[in-house]
Every structure is written in C-alpha cells, then in structure tokens.
Structure prediction request, 478 residues.
Amino acid sequence: MGKETGFLELDRHDRTYADPKERVHHYHEFVVPQAEPALRAQASRCMNCGIPYCHSGCPVNNNIPDWNHLVYEGDWLNALEVLHSTNNFPEFTGRICPAPCEASCTLNINDAAVTIKSIECAIVDKGWEQGWIQPQLPTRHTGKSVAVVGSGPAGMACAQQLARAGHSVVLFEKNDRAGGLLRYGIPDFKLDKHLIQQRLVQMMAEGVEFRTSTEVGVTVSVASLKENFDAVVLSGGAEEPRPLLIPGFELPGVRFAMEFLTQQNKRNAGDDEVRAAPRGSLTATGKHVVVIGGGDTGSDCVGTSIRQGAASVTQIEIMPRPPEKEDKALTWPDWPMKLRTSSSHEEGVSRDWAILTKRVVGTNSQVTGLECVRVEWVGGQMEEIAGSEFTLPADLILLAMGFTGPKKQGLVDQAKVDLDARGNVFADTFSYRTSDPQIFSCGDMRRGQSLVVWAIREGRQAARAVDEMLMGASELPR
Prediction:
C-alpha cells in the first residue's frame, strides 16, 4: 500500500469532459485526461483492502490494488504488466466499461470510489505512447489450428490468447473490417477506432490471420471449418434486435439502432454513402428523433443524433425511473440499480420513463408521431394509467430495446449446436464446449447481450478451454 492515509487526505477527482457545446460538432473522443501527478494522487487513495471487492466486481478480475500501488509509485511499466495479466484490451474497457469495479470499491460506501477506470485507461495509454506494448510471440508452435468466428472483443481476446499459446489461429469476420461491436456499434466519440487497429496490428504480428468479408455459414460453411481446423470457436454477437410489435412498426422511419450507429461509424471511417448505407442513408438531421430504450445503445443513438443535427431527441424507457441514489446497505458491493446519466444525455435530450408505446403514426408512409401511454408497475406487473395517453412528434424512431440472441440463419443453423432457453448457443463456463465437441462458444453468442468486459473474460477463458482440449493441459490464465 503506497500511502496508508491517502483515502483520508484526498477527495475523489476524476477526468473531465470537453464542453458539450464544443464536442457535439465532431465525432472525436472528448475525455480530458488528468496529468500524471493527479493520477498518482488518485491511485494513492486505494486502501488495499483485506478483501478487495473490486476484484470480484470486475468481470476479468483485474488486480486493481496492485496496479494502483504501482501507479502511485510511478512504476507505470510494471503497472501495465499487471494490468495486461488479466485484460487483453484495457484501452477498450478504460473507455467504455461502466466500471462495476468502482461500484464494488470499499470507498464507494461513501460515494467516493477510487477512480479505477481512469487509472486503468491512463496505464495502457502510457504503454502505447512509450512503445512498451509489443507483440508477444509464442515460444513454440503446436501444429494445432483454431478457427475463431466473430472478431468482436470475445473473438479478439480468444484469438490472441490462442496465438500466444502457439496455435495457428484464423479469425473470421463477416464485415469488411475487424472489431465487431467495438468497430460498428460503439460511436467514435466513445472509442476512437485507431485503438482497435493498433491491437489488430499487434495480433497479426503474433500470428493471428484475419479473414474479413467472410461470413461463416454463407460464404464459408461450418462443415469446411470443422474439416480444416482442429477446433472452432463461435464468438459472434447477440445480433438479433428486439422488434417493436405495434401497428406502424413497418414504416420506413422506424429503424433499429445498430443500423443507425453502424452507418455513422462507416462514414467516419471514410466510406462513401453507398458502402456505408446499402439500404439507403439513415440520418437524424433536422428530424424529431425518438429513441426507445434507456440503455447504453439508446444513449449512443442520442449522442449520434445530436451530432447529426436532430431537431429534437427524446429517449423513452418502459421501466420506471430508477432512484437517484442506491441504498448502499442493501446493494454494496453489487452493481446497483440507480439513475445513470451519460455524457450523451448531458448534450441535450428529453428523457421519460414508464412509457408504453401503442402505435406509430404515419402519413403517406412517413412517420409523424408515436402514440404512447404512461404505465405503473404494481407487484412486478405493468398497468396502463387511464387517461394518460399522449403522442410524441417523431420523424425517426430508433429501436434500442436490446437483443434477443444470436441470429440463427447461416452460422448457428449450420453448426447444429444446442441452444439454451433464451436462444443463445449453449455452453457452460468451464469447458465453453457446445453440444458438438469440436465447437466452442463464448461472448454474447453464448451468454446473451452483455458488456465488453464480460466478452473479454469469456474469450480468455474459452481460449484456455480450447488449449486444454488440444494439448491435454494449458498454461493460459483462466
């Protein structure tokens, strides 16, 4: 423990954001990082608890007190080594993870958690700046080959770990660029895509082969993968969006959030409009936008709509408004249900809760509004409030209501593996093996829609399971 009284002497101070009036005019990251003295001071607040709940709060079980101590001492290189021992891509989680570790921090009992996420991000950013992050080449080659299908965070983590174990790894991606959700689902203002690219370069140097624009189950069969590889890992996402089953859903002004976000990310990458929007350009410019769904994807739609110049943005959620502050005696150290306001919300949006949509209003195939009614939740049951009907003006309705599981047509159907009760690929979290002993699965395709940090964890653990199956034992971390 670097400074025994750090948490008593110093208040929590986190990194800040650029002014909303300035940042809404571009798609670049707008976090203002702290200077090194401030970061080291914040790291000194870590109490090095006898039972560090931040370990279990973090899905990849980061050794948080260890690298906090090293940062406090100014030993950034060793801090980076400790951080990478549990997390392949801390530059991703240091930007987009909701930081359940901070919710579990002992100092969060007083709403003053250590700024774990900011320190994590600073460590890895310094590692890239200093040139410390280099390819980790395997010490031997096993002669075994693995096909990893889906290049999101789970597939990337799995492929990197397997390559470092000495296996020949091919990572298949149906899109024209690797990265999955990181590339096309998360806006650039939250995660600049050069961060993905520098990891891809590292992974290629380590021996991972990327085959983009190759959709397994369409252009390449699952049977051919099983014939040509010793193991196959299904690491695609939970891409089947939850539909809005109300009258008017079929109108062209009602679109899924991921199509909207993907188009803008492709424009930012330099794609022309034909390549970015094969089904036709989808923008919020000059429109009254209604976002249905109160989660992170909905928030990303809000920020993107504002940058595109929407006339107004309204976000609605069917669940009741969460409390401003959780009851720590009941929730800590678990992840609490409480009101969360994102940076996109701060840029200008009208938010409303306990709203049930009834009908999309349209004229001449154009959306003009959304009929809604207020509801109350009684004993876990939703009841409409009589006389509370109202209509929101809307030119564009974006559906961000979550996902129901992986798409079945193509990859999953050809794999012929068992599914769980929710429609995800069935595999346990010890072996990660499906009902086909040659096929493994991890990430959102296995667990359902979740966090990037959970995908990284599952990719790492699945890699160990595959390595153990191929070699009889594994030295990869679990």
About this structure: DSSP finds 20 helices and 18 strands in the chain. The CA atoms of residues 334 and 438 lie 36 Å apart. The longest helix spans residues 452-471.
